[in-house]
Amino acid sequence: MHSSSLVDDGRRSLSGATWALKPVDDARVQALAARTGLSDVAARCLALRFDGDDLPSTDLLRPSLEHLHDPLRMRNMEAALDRLDHALRTGEKVRVVTDYDVDGTTSSLILQAALKLRNPDLPLSYHIPNRFEEGYGFSVQAAEKAADDGVGLIVTADIGVRDHAAVAAARARGLDVLVCDHHLPAGESVPEDALVLCPPQEGCDYPNAALAACGVSLKLAQGLLQHHHRAWDRILLSLLKLASIGTVADMVPLNTLENRAIVSLGLNELNQGRHHAGLSSLLKVAGLGDKAVRTSDLGFRIGPRINAAGRVADAKLVVELLNCREQERADQLASRLDALNTERRDIQRRLVREATERIAGAPTPWVLLAGKEDEGWHRGVVGIVAARVKDEVHRPTAVVSIQGDRAVGSVRSLPGIHAVQALDSASDLLVKYGGHPMAAGFTVPTDQLDALRDRLSAWVEANVDPTQLVPRRKVDVVVDADRLGEGLMQDLARLGPFGQANPRPVLMVPNVRIRDARLLGADKNMLKVKIPRGAGPWLEAIWWGGAEHMAELEAGPHDLLGHLGINEWRGRRTLQLELKDARPSAP
Question: Does 169 score more than 50 pLDDT?
Fold first, then answer.
């Protein structure tokens, strides 16, 4: 391995970025290599993902059911189970109310399955808000409708912890509310008149504060069923299929034992277990009917199809599909979901293209782009478009859908540029807003959009170091080309499942003269090259969207940046370097 001087020299890459080698204590790397049997390359990547004085146990590399913590360690779990036991014994009407995204819909399915397993005759219903009619969260409208329907207990998931007004409305009508959530910003309180399961809440010492809502729902299911069903382990493994999808799609950290176990064991079941008709049909339309399902597939194939229903139609379609046991009907529902995903993707591509054309290479400090919903600026995809534009121009970005005199916007920001703090600076212009440091949403009067753009750009100029607006790529490790083999690939794979807080290792391969460059794909936008590896066979490398850099790469030696992976094509598995960037090698 190489010193940081080979990487951190301020040179710009072909994408305009600077590179930086992540620092790590060499003694920790050596200790991890000795303890785990990993190579120095993989041990360095592992050390970067798990800092602190305590070295992670080798158990970290072998996820198991033992890594699922006792649900009773979660604050209010015992009281929640007692309340559900009462409903199950008495046949009380229960309604599950969840968000319309992947985390919410998988939570709904997990909770419904657990309650029905305990009491098949329970009068159970579910509600998922329609994004366009009800908006985000547990609403007063949903609480009132449940009361009108004679519901005695509402169980929310992925919403509720910040919906104090709706909880109060439900309680005023005599309903109890049980909240399964994880969206709790620091310093905020949970509803006092609800039973709240939320690991980040004050007074909760549950060992994994990073659960997704589907993970919290899984813990509730675990508490409900583990002492009441002889086939509990088999049921748990089945529920982990859903929890793994929601956990990856919601981008919660995958550097905790429990989250790693949820995803790893869920993937094993998706690849080895038998599936009912609904899940089989979903896997088939996602192109995974006869292929191994990988973590990336959960995030980029299955997750987007589930999200598409809530973005452009109604998320109830997802629950209907994944509860379906009749194959012909399941195939019809899956095809509808796939069509919605195609519609969502087409809208997204058009808006990204239109948005980047508007910027025309001269982005403001804060990019704000707006269009009328009835002219195609669909509010269901503004968040995705904001993320794509942000990545393209490396500026915090808001994309806004105008609906008459009101506009709804979604923000995607950069590390170190706090989206909500920026919106705080314009709070007097906004109807409402909220979110997280990297992603937020807001509603604003349409006639205030120009003022909002100016206010946010001024906030960036006053509070952000200009160097933060220069793309900077973090490098995990420097590896010579002749080390890029199957052995290293298998070593790095032991660090998975990959995702938030445990990203795929980023390798820098110095001083490479590429060979046999050619363009592939319908639009000839994928660059494929070969990399010499000493006396070994040449390694294939691809760069999606790298066509514009072909001539530069052919002109001389370059340092390459990318992920080592496996390409599966027509039953053939090939080692491959997935390029993300390149820069001319230093003289």
Answer: yes
